[in-house]
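Quarterly update from the structural biology core.
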Amino acid sequence: MFPVADRVWRVDIELPRDSVTGRRRRVSRTVRGSKEDAELALARLKLAGHQKRLPSGGTNARSVAAALDLYLQAAESGSLELAPTTVLTSRYAAGIMSVMELPDGRRFGSIVLSRLTWQHIEDLYGAMRASGRGPDWIRRCATVLTRSLDLARKRGLIDTNPSRDAVRPKSVRKKPYSPSDAEVKALLKDVASRDEELANLATVLASTGMRVGEVLGLQWSDVNLSAAEVHVGAAVADGGPGVGIVRKATKRSDWRDVPLTGAAISAFEHQAEQHTTLFGDAPGARTYVFGGSRDGADPMRPDGLSHRWLAARGNSPITLLGFRHYVATAMLDAGESYRTVADILGNSEVTLRLHYDGRTGIEKRKAVSVLEL
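Predicted structure, tokenized:
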């Protein structure tokens, strides 16, 4: 440990020689503060070396932008398990944060990791708000930044994660639009007159509450019509350029069996009949129920489905996600427990309450009934 300038110190430690090249390896940090601050930094550096958290292969990740890139590389290589769509979103978020200009004129990505503070990060959030970014998007960016800095800490590039001390914007809760039973039935009937397959898919969504990606990921081996249930264990996602459409685990990497209504069974039967009419044989176990090709060998693209639904629904405000809201609200208003509905939807009970506790369900009506004057 030795001084570089007034209240500026450099601390370094020597690591074991490289096992391949035999070269000496040293790791250093620049510390701004008192001598005690430098001593603490040296102690943390020694601890990181003892715990083998310091980079062994050599890395140039010294800036915030480099730390974000390091995180994305780990996600794309598979060492971090992220869904393909999450990787795409994270890359976009990292790009936005890196070029965001702070009040002092610097780009956030250019800040040296060792000098990054929670004030810089809160300045970033403020700059993003000023540029018109909403609180939900900023919170998503904050998650990417926090995970990136956590990885940098584990690699020994920084001693602490300053994003843990930064205050994130509060999320704005909005009551989701949940269509009525009459609206759903009328729309399904209208869509069926123009696109029978799309009506079958929408009927399954409105009868099970499945996510769109989960419905697109269904293969006939997942559908048990005799037992009137469907096994939900995979979903289709678009991984973007170089990855394409993939079938992956569900959002929570969990599986669930969902009972089927009579309408859902009829929708699946219609899909099977269409395949048999076209090819003269029942669909195979690995054939997609709602395929992107005529034979169902490939899944339907999520973006293609979205465009198709937008054209088919006409003036109706009901989106494909709206069917999931409808299912949750209808079951909760019928008096079903949050636990049961969460199990059917593949949500956590906490998440379900955050989204749907604002409804006027029968428990609330029963509670206020004692206040009748």
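The mean pLDDT is 87.
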